[in-house]
Design a protein that fits this description.
Elements (H helix, E strand, L loop, with lengths): L4 H31 L9 H5 L2 H32 L3 E6 L2 E4 L1 E7 L8 H14 L4 E7 L3 E8 L2 H14 L22 H9 L11 E6 L12 H10 L2 E7 L6 H13 L4 E3 L5 H11 L3 E4 L3 E6 L2 H21 L2
Parallel strand pairs: 3-4, 3-6, 6-7, 7-8
Antiparallel strand pairs: 1-10, 2-9, 4-5
Helix pairs in contact: 1-3, 3-10, 4-5, 4-9, 6-7, 7-8
């Protein structure tokens, strides 16, 4: 428990000064009454003082006055303690139970007609998730991470909408061009899939990891990593790949290669315009067991004057009761 000691001492000192002033005033008033002859005059008062009942009354009064003094002092201390705003610290470690999903989008020229539809699919996926962390990586001849894994869905929607606007080509350098044209060739699928698999954090932990990969698989150039090799790498990291093919049937060999790569990781391939694609992917992801990810330890301070106020209330009641009993 932490206290504002300077403030507490100031309050206690002020209350003590007021209490002393009140006590001195009462004493002066009582002395003045005795000096001026206030009250009834008794003859042979010494015989009255010798009575056992008188002695008991005096003793009772002294005890009551002592009690008033003690209760008053304790009440002052309790009041000062409450005024000092005692605080307690609580150490918590946030734990998020979720799954990790990396959205992976081919932004090559052959995909320009369907990328907006795929972004719509990505946004629709958000409606089916709750608590999952999502990231986005785009690629052409080189990959770029648009945003890392996060469960801030407003942040995710904002970036997806920004990426959508870049396909209007109103900027001199569209957003999806930045960093994705740093190598020879285009639509290097294997390199893109590998880069997405490497975007997962906490690799030392057993977690549910998924890549939702959208590409037409039309490779133009020599990739560093082939599609089968990229799929094998993803599998070794415990990542499942769900492929979305926007141009199914255009090239059966390419379509099958992407489907085989997804199947190797335990995932599946889906058609872009299939009415159940979004629901099926969400269902597949949620079938994987969610795991816990511990956040950074936090210390939370909060006011806790309740005990001091309760003690002050009890002491105040006792103080008033004794004051009434003694009738100062």
């Amino acid at each position: 428990m932490a206290l504002n000691w300077p403030f507490m001492l100031l309050i206690v000192g002020g209350v003590l000064v007021v209490a002393i002033a009140i006590g001195v005033t009462i004493g002066l008033v009582r002395t003045s009454r005795r000096v001026t002859g206030g009250g009834a005059q008794l003859a042979r008062a010494e015989r009255l003082r010798a009575l056992p009942s008188f002695s008991r009354a005096v003793r009772t009064r002294r005890i009551a006055l002592s009690g008033i003094l003690v209760l008053g002092a304790l009440a002052v201390l309790s009041g000062g303690l409450a005024a000092a705003r005692p605080m307690t610290a609580q150490t918590i470690q946030p734990v998020s139970t979720n799954r990790d999903i990396m959205l992976c989008l081919d932004v090559s020229g052959s995909m320009s007609e369907v990328d907006l539809e795929i972004i719509d699919v990505f946004e629709n996926l958000l409606d089916g998730f709750e608590g999952e962390r999502l990231g986005l990586t785009i690629f052409n001849s080189s990959p770029v991470q648009v945003f890392p894994l996060t469960d801030d869905y407003d942040f995710i929607r904002e970036h997806l909408q920004s990426l959508r606007r870049s396909f209007d080509y109103t900027d001199s350098v569209p957003e999806h061009y930045s960093g994705t044209l740093n190598g020879p060739g285009a639509s290097l699928i294997g390199d893109g899939l590998t880069a997405c698999a490497m975007r997962f954090d906490h690799v030392e932990e057993e977690r549910s990891r998924t890549i939702i990969f959208a590409s037409d698989n039309e490779v133009n150039g020599a990739s560093i990593v082939s599609v089968p090799e990229a799929a094998a790498f993803a599998k070794s990291m415990g990542v499942r790949v769900f492929a979305i093919n926007p141009v199914a049937g255009k090239d059966a060999t390419m379509t099958q290669e992407l489907a085989d790569a997804a199947a190797l990781t335990g995932g599946k391939a889906y058609e872009l315009r299939d009415a159940t694609t979004v629901d099926d992917i969400v269902a597949e992801v949620q079938q994987q067991a969610a795991t816990q990810l511990k956040g950074q330890v936090q210390i939370i301070w909060s006011d806790s004057p309740n005990l001091a106020l309760a003690v002050l209330a009890v002491l105040s009641i006792g103080f008033v009761a004794l004051m009434w009993r003694v009738r100062l």
